[in-house]
Amino acid sequence: MKIYTRSGDTGQASLYNGERLYKDDAVFQALGDVDELNSALGVAMSFLTNKTLLEQLEAIQSRLIDVGSAVATPLPSSPEAKLQRTHFPGALHAQQLEAWIDAMDEQLPPLKNFILPSGGRGSSALHHARSVCRRAERSVVVLSRRQTISLEVNVYLNRLSDYLFTAARHTAMSDGVPEVVYKKSS
């Protein structure tokens, strides 16, 4: 199978259900943002050494492929078999993220101030991934408001940004790099 198909040369692409839409459709915006998040995680992982965190992030990358599948299969226009295949149990996966957040949070000092994205390369890359995650979340909110995707996708991405914030703080602490505290202008 060749990597190129030429089917998108006219500015349209197919969803999993076979529906063709223009590439500037909100569905493709959301898919692109989720894909960019997955890439940002890959970059962040290249700066990390914590085996547990790397295993968690690899699992998250796979869940993001699942998120993309759910986004690419609109609820109102997809056959039931395709909906079942791409169903994303976001609340269940959010619980796993919460457990990982709680485990890291137990080791962190309490957060008393706003912090700037900082804490070394690994931490900063995770902060960047968190920002991309927030954008992906905003993109899927458009689709869930239209009721074309399950709200569970939103739940997962919302919790994922919390996870990435906590992972960034934990990485800074583990690497011995201080976080930079926000200072209000005078």
Automatic annotation (TrEMBL):
<keyword id="KW-0808">Transferase</keyword>
<dbReference type="GO" id="GO:0009235">
    <property type="term" value="P:cobalamin metabolic process"/>
</dbReference>
<dbReference type="GO" id="GO:0005524">
    <property type="term" value="F:ATP binding"/>
</dbReference>
<keyword id="KW-0067">ATP-binding</keyword>
<protein>
    <recommendedName>
        <fullName>Corrinoid adenosyltransferase MMAB</fullName>
    </recommendedName>
</protein>
<dbReference type="InterPro" id="IPR016030">
    <property type="entry name" value="CblAdoTrfase-like"/>
</dbReference>
<dbReference type="GO" id="GO:0008817">
    <property type="term" value="F:corrinoid adenosyltransferase activity"/>
</dbReference>
<feature type="domain" description="Cobalamin adenosyltransferase-like">
    <location>
        <begin position="3"/>
        <end position="170"/>
    </location>
</feature>
<dbReference type="InterPro" id="IPR036451">
    <property type="entry name" value="CblAdoTrfase-like_sf"/>
</dbReference>
<comment type="subunit">
    <text>Homotrimer.</text>
</comment>
<comment type="similarity">
    <text>Belongs to the Cob(I)alamin adenosyltransferase family.</text>
</comment>
<dbReference type="Pfam" id="PF01923">
    <property type="entry name" value="Cob_adeno_trans"/>
</dbReference>
<comment type="function">
    <text>Converts cob(I)alamin to adenosylcobalamin (adenosylcob(III)alamin), a coenzyme for methylmalonyl-CoA mutase, therefore participates in the final step of the vitamin B12 conversion. Generates adenosylcobalamin (AdoCbl) and directly delivers the cofactor to MUT in a transfer that is stimulated by ATP-binding to MMAB and gated by MMAA.</text>
</comment>
<keyword id="KW-0547">Nucleotide-binding</keyword>
<dbReference type="InterPro" id="IPR029499">
    <property type="entry name" value="PduO-typ"/>
</dbReference>
